[in-house]
Amino acid sequence: MSSQTDTAIHAQHTLLKMDDISKIFYTDEVETHALSGVHFAIDRGDYVSITGPSGCGKSTLLSILGLLDTPSGGSYSLNGVPVADISAAERARIRNREIGFIFQAF
């Protein structure tokens, strides 16, 4: 197979893709970089666990993945559609029907 064919086949199976995602929080004069340069893809059928020490950005990443928050920079696509192009109403529908995760405190 050619690399173009491989890329096209992989794109059909990619559920979500993040490229160079960053998240910066601003409070008063403090700038906190919670995420910087995050790159990954998750294919249909994959099981993923996000682990790391306290304060490393896991909850921030999950909030972006779950369409609860938006990144400060980079691109995020879901089912091949840029998340930035999805309306608030459609994001709510996706959260309701297609995305689920277990919160660390419930």
Tags for this entry?
106 residues, alpha+beta, Rossmann fold, 3 helices, 4 strands, 34% strand
Notes on the structure:
The protein has 106 residues and is α+β, with helices and mostly antiparallel strands. It has one domain (3-97): 3-Layer(aba) Sandwich (Rossmann fold), CATH 3.40.50.300. It is built from three helices and four strands; from the N terminus they run αββαββα. The protein has a four-stranded antiparallel beta sheet with strand order 2-1-3-4. It is globular and about 40 Å long. It starts with a helix and ends in a 9-residue tail after the last helix. 12% of the residues are buried.
Straight-line distance between termini: 48 Å
Overall shape: globular
Strand order of the largest sheet: 2-1-3-4
Order of helices and strands: HEEHEEH
In DSSP terms (H or I, runs of 4 or more residues), the helix count works out at 3
- Major sheet details: 4 strands, antiparallel
- The helix content, as a percent range, equals 25-40%
Query: Helix/strand/pairing class, anyone?
Result: alpha+beta
CATH structural class: Alpha Beta
CATH level-4 homologous superfamily: P-loop containing nucleotide triphosphate hydrolases
Number of domains: 1
Total number of strands: 4
CATH topology: Rossmann fold
Give the percentage of residues in beta strands.
25-35%
Mean pLDDT, to the nearest integer, reads 87
Oligomer: single chain
- The Rg value, from CA coordinates, equals 15 Å
